[in-house]
Amino acid sequence: xxQRIELAKRLLKKADTSIANVAxxxxxxxxxxxxxxxxxxTGMTPKAYRQNK
Length: 53
Prior knowledge:
By secondary structure, the chain is mostly helical. It has one domain (2-52): Homeodomain-like (Arc Repressor Mutant, subunit A, Orthogonal Bundle). Helix content is 70%, strand content 0%. It has 4 helices and no strands. It has helices at 2-12, 19-25, 31-42, 46-52. α2 (19-25) packs across α3 (31-42). The relative contact order is 0.22. Residues 1-52 form the HTH araC/xylS-type domain. It holds the Pfam family HTH_18.
C-alpha cells in the first residue's frame, strides 16, 4: 500500500492528471478509495497534497 501511495504522490505533482486518473493509475477502484488510504497514511487528502506541493 505504501508504494501505491508514493506513486500517487508523484502523480499528484503533475497538475495535468486528474485525481480520479491518479487513483486508477495506482490501482485504486475510485477516487474516494484513494482518498481514504491517502488520508490515513499522509494526514491529508490528495487534493490538499496537490495544493501544498
